[in-house]
Amino acid sequence: MRAGLVRNPAYWITLALLGTSAAGLTTALDRFKIMLKKEPIHAPGGRLLKDVQVDYPSFHQLGSDHKEKAEIEETLGTKNYISRTYAYTPVGTPGGKPGAAEQRLEFHAAYYTGMIDTVPHVPDRCFVGAGMLIDAFLGDLPLPLNNDGWHKVDDEPKYHERYECFYIPNSSHEHARARVTLPRDAEHLQLRTTRFLGSGGATVHAGYFFIANGGWVASADDVRLLAFDRKSKYAYYLKVQFSSDTVKSGEDLAMLAAKFLDESLGELLLSVPDWMKVEKGEYPEPDQGPKDTIQSVSAAQSGARRSDKVDNGDRPANK
Fold first, then answer.
1. Could you list the residue range(s) of the whole structural domain that residue 143 is in?
2. In terms of pLDDT, which residue wins out, 160 or 218?
3. Tens digit of pLDDT for each residue in 43-99?
4. Does 11 reside within a domain?
5. Cβ contacts of residue 147 below 8 Å, gap of 6+?
6. DSSP characters over 256-307
7. Structural domain contains residue 174
8. Per the structure, how many domains does the chain have?
9. Do 45 and 191 fall into the same domain?
10. Alpha-carbon distance 123 to 108, whole Å?
């Protein structure tokens, strides 16, 4: 029967068509520079999110960095993350460091790179899994960032609406006066916001957005489409998440998160690749391989260095 199949002209025609199609697909992918496999990429010098400084002029950390348990890290899909609790005191407020009565802000950020096969863990899913109830989806709320110190860069169409700013933590910091490229259309950043009900009727507002391959999205469903730009060799995304049990509305959370980002966004972006340099072929350098210490768990990559300032106490996971 097999011999009959081999003698059948239709068999050879089908085989030839399949071979031609495969060759044509390879040619098309090469011609249009379409990349189906994504490689990991990391911040210059292997900088990790845990290297982001602790305190800012208006935000003082309460406690220490929260370190998730191993099983939670596996679910989270990366070991390159930070989870911190901040208290907000406007610059110039008398009385020293913030106390218990100040507004509290939970800040969480997680970095993913390479062939990202994990679904982003966001409050809509994880807070519910931890026993909270969704009270209301509040939508994608504008983040009212102060852009007075931003400067538009590059007039090429592909860099339309791209800005950079100076990050100036203090005069002795290693990155003092560093120029930082902001995501495309950063002036339109939004926070996807939800109100939750916890035990005892406590209200928690939570929101998030993603920075990926030099752009941003508010939706967990859209981030992989952004990260997997078909013409890019590399893929990464950074989840940025905020929650608070002291704010009264989604707009209040967006305002508080914007105040925090006004003081921290520049440094936070030092922990991701400068995508403008990636697009121009200036980064990573040809002889610079991926950093093994900060590769993603979800892509079978090794873990990041442990933070030397962690809190192992039990509390709801920021994932």
1. 38-311
2. 218
3. 999 999 999 989 999 999 999 999 888 887 887 888 999 999 999 988 766 555 544
4. yes
5. 163, 186, 187
6. HHHHHHHHHHHHHGGGS--HHHHHTT-SS-TT----GGG--GGGTPPPPPPP
7. yes
8. 2
9. yes
10. 11
